[in-house]
Amino acid sequence: MTSDKNFHEKNEMKQSSDPCNCCCLDSLYTILDGEASEENTEELMAHIEKCLPCYQQYDLEVAIRELLQTRLAKKCPPQDLLDCIREKIASITITQ
Ligand SMILES: [Zn+2]
Q1: 71: containing domain
Q2: Which range in 14-18, 19-23, 36-40 is most confidently predicted, on average pLDDT?
Q3: Does residue 13 sit within a domain?
Q4: Nearest to 96 by CA among 62, 50, 66, 55
Q5: Stated pTM of the model
Q6: How many folded domains does the chain comprise?
């Protein structure tokens, strides 16, 4: 029954390479808010380098925050501008 065992192992490997189902999005926001410890930051950064979904999410949030900070320094952005930026960056990330 070795073939059965092999089949099972292959299935498990396939599952583990599925889109990211890790729970690091919470720590991602903690880090972006500047509330994470140095250890947590390093951990997530190491993960992001290997995990594309998390990297894209991080990249998106950083871009939004930078844009907002620049805008906030001058004027408060309307909420729909925020949504517009999110959609734009998301569509760029997907098409690439
Ligand atoms: Zn991830």
Answers
A1: 19-95
A2: 36-40
A3: no
A4: 55
A5: 0.51
A6: 1
Share of the chain above pLDDT 70, in %: 69
Residue with tokens 């880090």: 31
Contacts of 43 (CB under 8 A, 6+ apart): 27
Write out the residues surrounding ion ligand 1, Cβ under 5 A.
20, 22, 51, 54
**Residue 73, in any domain of the structure:** yes
In a domain, 70, yes or no: yes
Q: Is residue 7 part of a domain?
A: no
Collapse the DSSP code of 66 into the 3-class scheme (helix H, G, I; strand E, B; otherwise coil) and give the result.
Answer: helix
Q: What is the residue whose two structure tokens read 């999110």?
A: 86
User: Stretch 64-80: mean pLDDT, rounded?
Assistant: 76
Is-contact 57 29, C-beta < 8 A? Answer: no
Long-range CB contacts for residues 43-49, cutoff 8 Å, separation at least 24: 47/22
22 alpha carbon – ligand 1 mean position (Å): 5
Residue 25 Cα, ligand 1 centroid: separation in angstroms? 8
